[in-house]
C-alpha cells in the first residue's frame, strides 16, 4: 500500500497550454456554449458593472484554465477590450497556451519597487484581436502572498481603467487562501465545477469560503467531459446556473443547493 496517495491532477495544460477551441473553431457547439457562459455573466451585470472577474474551482485540474481562456476569447471576439491575467502562480498556463515568453509578467509587477508601472512592459499581445495577456511571470517562493497583496489590488484597479474586461485565472479556493482575498476585491467570481469529479462537499465548502470572504459569486460553469461534442477527441459541456433570479427555474436547482 502506498503511504502517500498521488495528488489527482494533470500537468498537461501547464506544459502544452489550454485548448483554444474558441479560436480554432469559433462556430463549434463548444464555442457556442462558451459564448452562452459569457452571455450569462453579462446578465449578472444588469445591476452591477462587472469589469473585473476571476474563475476559480474547488481543487486543481477541474478545467479552470481551459474555461477561463476560452471565455476571455469570446469577450474579445465580441469587441470588448479584454485583459487576461494568469493569477494561478502555482500552476501557470497562459504563456504555454499562447506560446509566449514568461520572463516578465504578473510577478514582475508585484515584486517591483517602481512607483509607476508601464503596462506595455509586461502585457503582451495574444494574436487574437482585442485580447491582451499578462502571463504569471517567474514563480517566486511565496506565490500566494503576492496574489493577496495590496499591490495586486492596486494593480487591478489600474488595469480596470484601461480595459473593458479584466479576467483572472485564479488558483483553487480550497488550495490557496489568497484566492479569497483577491476575489473579494473583484466584481465577481465564477466557480468551475468538473462534472462527476468535483465532490459536492468540496463545492459547498468553496462556496462557503467565498461567501465568508464576501466574494460575489456570479455562478458556476459545469465542465462536463462526458458530453462529447468538441470533435477534438474529448468532449466539453458547459452548464451555467444562477441563484439570482435569472434563467429557468430548473437551471437554478443545482446552484441553489450550494448557495443556501
Ligand atoms: N471539458 C473537458 N474535456 C476534456 N478534458 C478537459 C476538459 N476541460 C479540461 N480538460 C483537461 O483537463 C486538464 C485540466 O484542465 P485545466 O488545466 O484547464 O484545469 P485547471 O483547473 O486550470 O487545472 P490546474 O489546477 O492545473 O490549474 C487538462 O489536461 C485539460 O486539457
Ligand atoms: Mg489552471
TrEMBL record:
Residue ranges of every copy of the AAA domain listed in the record: 62-192
In which family does this protein belong, per the annotation? Belongs to the CpsD/CapB family.
Catalyses: L-tyrosyl-[protein] + ATP = O-phospho-L-tyrosyl-[protein] + ADP + H(+)
Q: Which GO terms describe its molecular function?
A: ATP binding; identical protein binding; non-membrane spanning protein tyrosine kinase activity
What InterPro entries does the entry give? AAA_dom, Bact_polysacc_biosynth/exp, P-loop_NTPase, Wzc-like_C
Name the chain's protein: Tyrosine-protein kinase CpsD
User: Which organism is this protein's natural source?
Assistant: Lactobacillus amylolyticus DSM 11664
Please verify whether the record's keywords include Nucleus. Answer: no
EC number(s) from the headed UniProt entry:
2.7.10.2
Q: Name one GO cellular component term.
A: plasma membrane
Q: Which NCBIfam families match?
A: eps_fam (TIGR01007)
Q: Which is one Pfam family of this protein?
A: AAA_31
Provide the GO biological process annotations.
capsule polysaccharide biosynthetic process
Query: What are the UniProt keywords, alphabetically?
Result: ATP-binding, Capsule biogenesis/degradation, Exopolysaccharide synthesis, Kinase, Nucleotide-binding, Transferase, Tyrosine-protein kinase
What task does this protein carry out? Involved in the regulation of capsular polysaccharide biosynthesis. Autophosphorylation of CpsD attenuates its activity and reduces the level of encapsulation. May be part of a complex that directs the coordinated polymerization and export to the cell surface of the capsular polysaccharide.
Q: In which pathway does it act?
A: Capsule biogenesis; capsule polysaccharide biosynthesis
Amino acid at each position: 500500500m502506498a503511504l502517500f496517495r498521488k495528488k489527482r491532477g494533470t500537468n498537461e495544460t501547464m506544459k502544452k497550454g489550454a485548448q483554444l477551441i474558441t479560436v480554432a473553431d469559433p462556430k463549434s457547439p463548444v464555442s457556442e456554449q462558451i459564448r452562452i457562459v459569457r452571455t450569462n455573466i453579462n446578465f449578472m451585470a444588469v445591476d452591477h458593472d462587472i469589469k473585473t472577474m476571476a474563475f476559480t474551482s474547488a481543487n486543481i485540474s477541474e478545467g479552470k484554465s481551459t474555461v477561463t481562456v476560452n471565455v476571455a476569447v469570446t469577450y474579445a471576439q465580441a469587441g470588448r477590450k479584454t485583459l487576461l491575467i494568469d493569477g494561478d502562480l502555482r500552476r501557470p498556463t497562459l504563456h504555454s497556451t499562447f506560446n509566449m515568453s514568461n520572463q516578465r509578467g504578473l510577478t514582475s509587477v508585484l515584486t517591483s519597487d517602481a512607483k509607476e508601472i508601464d503596462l506595455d512592459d509586461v502585457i503582451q499581445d495574444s494574436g487574437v484581436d482585442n485580447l491582451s495577456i499578462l502571463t504569471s511571470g517567474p514563480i517566486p517562493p511565496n506565490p500566494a502572498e503576492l496574489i493577496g497583496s495590496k499591490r495586486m489590488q492596486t494593480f487591478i484597479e489600474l488595469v480596470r481603467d484601461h480595459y473593458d474586461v479584466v479576467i483572472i485565472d485564479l488558483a483553487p479556493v480550497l488550495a490557496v487562501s489568497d484566492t479569497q482575498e483577491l476575489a473579494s476585491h473583484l466584481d465577481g467570481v465564477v466557480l468551475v465545477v468538473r462534472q462527476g469529479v468535483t465532490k459536492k462537499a468540496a463545492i459547498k465548502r468553496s462556496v462557503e469560503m467565498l461567501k465568508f470572504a464576501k466574494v460575489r459569486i456570479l455562478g458556476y460553469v459545469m465542465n462536463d467531459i462526458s458530453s462529447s461534442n468538441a470533435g477534438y477527441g474529448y468532449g466539453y459541456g458547459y452548464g451555467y446556473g444562477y441563484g439570482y433570479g435569472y434563467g429557468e427555474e430548473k437551471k437554478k436547482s443545482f446552484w441553489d443547493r450550494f448557495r443556501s
